[in-house]
Amino acid sequence: MVPEKAKDLAAVREHAWEVYKTQGIPATTEEAWRRTDLSRLNAGQFGLQNNDLNDYSAATPPEEILRPLADTEQAGQIILSINDEKIKLSNDLLEKGVVFTTFSELRKNNPSLLARYIGKIVKPEEGLFPAMVQAFGQDGIFLFIPKNVKISQPLHSIIWGAIEKTARLSHVIVVLEENSEATFIHETASPENENGSAFHAGIVEILIGENARLQFVELQSLGKNVWNFSNERARVENQGTIEWTFGAIGSRLTKNFTDLDLVGEGATGKMSGFYFTDGTQHLDHDTQQNHLAPHTTSDLLFKGALLDNSHSVWQGMIYVAPGAQKTDGYQANRNLILSRNAHADSIPGLEIKADDVRCTHGATVGKIDKDELFYLLSRGIPQKEAERLIVEGFFDPIMQRIPFEGVRNRFQQYIHNKMAV
């Protein structure tokens, strides 16, 4: 006899499959996709990724990816690679009811917990790619923090691998119950490969309960052969707080939808983004700060630098619902163009349906200041080094928002690598 909750999980997948069959590849005639052209995406070349892989150099994450990014000892770590999964969680947290595991383990040991939350924040109806993940995805990472449990040490997870001619589908669910706290560092990565296309689609669903607090650091370092699509949303209840930091340096093309839904009175969300493109990379981030209750606060700062023939898009919206009085919303996007052929689109927006609010936004696209460069050159600093120092200074406001030296060092290494050519 099939357990009832297993049937629920099957129903989720079946519903997503029905939705998936109605979806087509997004076109530039759709406003959200107007600046990201998928006409070169040959979706038929990708098969679902399986565990039958003999190339262990591609199957296993390199040491620098596995290295802890936090400054203190980790409370737990999950490594979800192509043909293996490793799960570590301290006994103390297990005894407190913390769940930090993979979907495959939950399906075997606690399917009711997975069925309670999967697909509740990001719906398959939101597009082809979320429907695809929920219809075909086999595994993911699940974090559950019970009521009143506060974790001082960070948790760390890695989803590794997007192999040539395969589709890697990932799903992350984070649930913090009332009055709980956690810090979670998550990375999606794959081998640095510019030959032979690969595909990744992902979902991130986050639920922050009343008076709960989450620090979430999310890194994307996929290889430059990867077509990458993600739909992410955090739902924050009364007096809840999320500090959400993004770092994106990989992929051939990325289209990322990130929504912050402040649904409870007094909810707070802080979003910080770092991206650095080169070659012919195209990164498109679409952010929503949705103020759906009174006395909510959001603060977004995204910064990007661009080299060569790369292209970035940031499109942001602050939405204030009717009755969401005393809203305080801010968003800013700053871009530094480092090559003649690089291009950045920056489109902030406001939609306000309440009359007692404070909402501001701003966007800039510019080049390295010639006076700053001249000053450094006049002090005997070589031009390449001077430009790197200016770029590091440009990103410093983002670095100051990152709570861990290991993550800051990783970002600074990205800057060094991009500008070393």
Characteristic terms for this protein:
alpha/beta; single chain; SUF_FeS_clus_asmbl_SufBD_core; 421 residues; 11-stranded mixed sheet; 10-stranded mixed sheet; Fe-S cluster assembly protein SufD; globular; SUF_FeS_clus_asmbl_SufD; 39% strand; 10 helices; Fe-S_cluster_assembly_SufBD
Short description:
This protein has 421 residues and is of the alpha/beta class. It has helices spanning 4-20, 56-59, 63-66, 91-95, 103-109, 111-117, 128-136, 370-378, 383-399, 405-419; strands at residues 47-48, 76-80, 85-89, 99-102, 141-145, 155-160, 166-176, 181-189, 198-208, 213-221, 226-236, 241-248, 253-262, 268-277, 282-291, 297-306, 311-320, 327-337, 343-347, 350-352, 357-367. The longest helix is centred in the N-terminal third of the chain and has 17 residues, at 4-20.
Walkthrough of the structure:
The chain has 421 residues and is an alpha/beta fold. It has one domain. Helices cover 22% and strands 39% of the residues. The chain has helices at residues 4-20, 56-59, 63-66, 91-95, 103-109, 111-117, 128-136, 370-378, 383-399, 405-419, and strands at residues 47-48, 76-80, 85-89, 99-102, 141-145, 155-160, 166-176, 181-189, 198-208, 213-221, 226-236, 241-248, 253-262, 268-277, 282-291, 297-306, 311-320, 327-337, 343-347, 350-352, 357-367. The strands form 2 sheets. Strands 1, 4, 5, 7, 9, 11, 13, 15, 17, 19 and 20 form an 11-stranded mixed beta sheet that branches. A 10-stranded mixed beta sheet has the order 3-2-6-8-10-12-14-16-18-21. Strand 2 and strand 3 form a beta hairpin. 46% of the residues are buried. It holds the Pfam family SUFBD_core.
